[in-house]
Amino acid sequence: MCDSEMVAFLEIKLPPSDSHSFQPGSRLQIFACREHDDIAGDVYSGYTAFDNASRIVALPDEYWNITDGHYVLRLLSPTTKTVESKQESRLAHQYLAATIASEDSQDGFKLFGQPYWVQHAEPHQCSCGAPMELLLQIPDGHGFRMADGAEEQPNSFSRMEYCIFLGNQLYLLGCTSQCNPYALWPVLQN
Ligand SMILES: [Zn+2]
Ligand SMILES: [Zn+2]
To answer: Per-residue pLDDT tens for 129-141?
Structure first.
């Protein structure tokens, strides 16, 4: 929305597992603006539409368009073709290693399973009727290490790290039918 090139924060190719309903091999991607890194549904776009949808279980049609224009969350099907990407130059490259953890594990990134809610539970159902499940949980205050010489993020809690959604705990819920690559909903708590 502001013409700033989004930062490619994260890409995860979903592993096959009995613990989720998504298509294995789908790619979860998170992009966000370096300069406008506030929570979803905020001053950039008007809070009401996001807040209204957050309060109901069944999300409205095309709920993925309720965004402030400074982030992109998508889950590409295994067969989606994308153009070859440039390297993200502003973040230090890091790899995630997956381990099987117990359901009540609270630390680190979490793929699938039950959300560990720090406030009240906020379950949702997709407008297509399919249930939404937890794709990814990112802990409160998680920073993404910057590359050497990268510009600072104006509102981050750190001069060495970027954050997404102001570092709030993110519960990224996804439509289990994957009816649209953007059929994801960010729940933020702290
Ligand atoms: Zn922006
Ligand atoms: Zn759906």
So the answer is: 999 999 999 999 9
pLDDT at residue number 43? 63
The pTM of the full predicted model, rounded to 2 decimals, is: 0.93
Euclidean distance between CA atoms 93 and 68, whole angstroms:
27
What is the distance in A from the centroid of ligand 2 to the CA of 59? Answer: 10
- Of residues 142, 165, 189, the one with CA closest to residue 40: 165
| pLDDT greater than 80 at residue 42 | no
Cα 171 to middle of ligand 1, angstroms: 22
In a domain, 84, yes or no: no
Compute, in angstroms, the gap from residue 23 CA to the centroid of ligand 1. 31
Ligand 2 centroid to residue 61 C-alpha, Å: 9
Q: Is 94 helix (H, G, I), strand (E, B) or coil?
A: coil
User: Which has more confidence, 16 or 177?
Assistant: 177
Instruction: Tell me if 148 is assigned to some domain.
Output: yes
167: containing domain: 1-79+91-190
- Measure 35 CA to ligand 2 centroid, in angstroms: 31
Per the prediction, the chain carries an average pLDDT of: 91
